[in-house]
From TrEMBL:
Protein name: Transposase
GO molecular function: DNA binding; metal ion binding
Probable transposase IS891/IS1136/IS1341 domain boundaries: 169-275
Family as reported in the entry's similarity comment: In the C-terminal section; belongs to the transposase 35 family.
Organism: Streptosporangium roseum (strain ATCC 12428 / DSM 43021 / JCM 3005 / KCTC 9067 / NCIMB 10171 / NRRL 2505 / NI 9100)
InterPro entries (alphabetical): Cas12f1-like_TNB, Transposase, Transposase_put_HTH
Record field: compositional bias (Basic residues): 394-407
All residue ranges annotated as the Cas12f1-like TNB domain in the record: 310-376
NCBIfam families named in the record: guided_TnpB (NF040570)
Chain segments carrying region Disordered: 276-295, 382-429
Domain Transposase putative helix-turn-helix stretches: 1-42
Keyword field: DNA recombination, DNA-binding, Metal-binding, Transposition, Zinc
Pfam families the record matches: Cas12f1-like_TNB, HTH_OrfB_IS605, OrfB_IS605
Biased composition (Low complexity): 409-419
Amino acid sequence: MLTGRRYRLDLTPGQAEFAERIGGACRSVWNTALEQRRVHHRRGAWIGYHEQARQLVEAKGEFGWLAEVPGRCLQQTLIDLDQACAKHGTWKVRWKSRVRNAPSFRFPEGGKITVERLNRRWARAKLPKLGWVRLRITRPLGGKIKNATVCRDGRHWYISFLVEDGLAPPERHANPGSRVGIDRGVVKVVTRSDGIFHHRVFARDREAAHAKKLQRDFARTARGSARRKKAAGRVADLAGRIGRRRQDFAAKTACVLATGFELVVFEALATKNMTAGVEPRPDPERPGAFLPNGAASKSGLNRSILDNGWHRIEVATIGKARYTGTHVIKVNPAYTSQRCNVCTAVDGKSRESQAVFRCTSCGHTEHADVNAAKNILTAGRAEHAQPRPGVRVGARKPRNRVGRKANRQATAAQVTAQTEPEPAGIPRL
């Protein structure tokens, strides 16, 4: 199976500067290629990866800053853009900003990457044009390298290897027949249907107050100044420390769930939609004023959901389940917190508080989150027991997306050449 290995790099000042230039070149190629696709879309034409890759070769001959960076990284940027446009649409793909987006680039040829272990703690990897770079080897690679991605997170650089470990999922789980329902909350991060809670405070009160002070210090600095860069680094260091705690909690919780249960049931929560902001409502009687819409309380709920990492726990469990044979399914979350798991009666008044559930029909009393987790498990067992439809016999194999786009590109180029000449001002790579 394919898995990831992430290590912290120890780059020299020269290597760090060159890595910044590679990331800047990839960002420029992304933005230029995206604008080129949008211009063609406005004209009713189409341009794809193959044509943009050909223009990239021509641009490398004209601009030296493009020729000095690894060409495979630039081509991989065009491939990522092509996949993003095919999945989300040209107009929904976002620009890459130097401020908001950290530099990141990928070396797609894993066979050309060499990793040598120096001692118990350190190793080195040879990357195209970057040369030998030192990395903190916290765990062995354990397989064949497919590609490598270099990115900057805060003040430090990291490298992520995509590795083929050669392992296969087990035919049967170690605990056959074991099932658990998972309810994610704000007060308790994870509540299991067997009554066990998984919780951790990621940011203590003192750290939260210190984070607000660092944000105020950052807001008082001038744009482009050296003090602003230092203040941004202090904010990023604290946020990174809290984020690593959240990631560690998600990984450990996922390991417990995947190794202990054959079936894990989550709620199908749209976290992105749940944490969206509230639209302001203008007051018709007072021009320029807005009606109260509960935006302050909603922002607090959004912050709590994001701080607890609901989606990260689900993704980590799915990734760990590949090695244990665990089935992870998601069910409809409707009325799971208002339904009694004993008599199945649904009443919003049954949940008296955040932690107390007392059924108005049968009088059953239980912790509200545990009751919701049991309802989630019941729905998951019913869905898991239903036979799933098989693949239709003789189904056509999906074609290569890049090859299909190449045919569309050639057709669009012929139509454009016959109808009108290419106007000046179209951005080219």
